[in-house]
């Protein structure tokens, strides 16, 4: 939270209240999250409230990375909290029906993919994208379930619920719930 007591530290955080947005880049293979600057939290992000969008971008999604889908998808880097209560940033992919009108409201489903590896190649924000090389990623198959919900008129938020560090297999990781809950678009 930005308050009078922490404004001195937040002055460098010029993005607060004005997150940057990247337009869709067609015919470009996505970078792995570990190599993609989009996943890096901006300076001063720790002063924002959990759930605050830090930056966004439009992306294309495809079944198995190859078969494009007629859906609208936007990725949000947002501020959340790790399992020790420290500020963290992670990504969610928000998918809307292609025929949804701007400003139209629709029910929201938060869908947690079965991430089966610690590599960032299996993060939903990467594996769901068109031209992603995520062969063997269960997430790519789960796009069928996600698009079924979208076809019913639902918006679907698919968070990288293991965070940008891929904390896979941590027993009873309370941060997973935080990364998911604060990922509400």
From TrEMBL:
Top-level taxon in the UniProt lineage: Bacteria
Cross-referenced InterPro entries: AB_hydrolase_fold (IPR029058), Lipase_secreted (IPR005152)
GO molecular function: triacylglycerol lipase activity
One GO process term, biological-process aspect: lipid catabolic process
One matching Pfam family: LIP
Protein name: Uncharacterized protein
Organism listed in the record: Mycobacterium kansasii
């Amino acid at each position: 939270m930005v308050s009078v007591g922490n404004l001195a530290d937040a002055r460098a955080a010029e993005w607060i209240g004005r997150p940057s947005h990247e337009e869709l880049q067609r015919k470009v293979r996505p970078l792995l999250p570990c190599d993609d600057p989009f996943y890096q939290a901006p300076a001063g992000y720790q002063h924002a409230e959990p759930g605050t969008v830090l930056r966004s971008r439009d992306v294309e999604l495809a079944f198995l990375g190859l078969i494009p889908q007629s859906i609208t998808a936007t990725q949000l880097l947002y501020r959340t909290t790790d399992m020790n209560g420290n500020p963290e940033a992670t990504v969610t992919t928000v998918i809307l029906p292609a025929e949804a009108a701007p400003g139209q409201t629709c029910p929201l489903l938060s869908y947690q993919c079965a991430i089966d590896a610690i590599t960032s190649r299996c993060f939903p924000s990467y594996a769901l994208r068109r031209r992603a090389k995520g062969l063997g990623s269960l997430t790519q198959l789960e796009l069928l379930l996600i698009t079924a919900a979208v076809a019913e008129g639902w918006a679907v938020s698919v968070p990288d619920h293991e965070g940008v560090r891929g904390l896979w297999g941590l027993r009873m990781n309370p941060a997973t719930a935080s990364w998911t809950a604060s990922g509400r678009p």
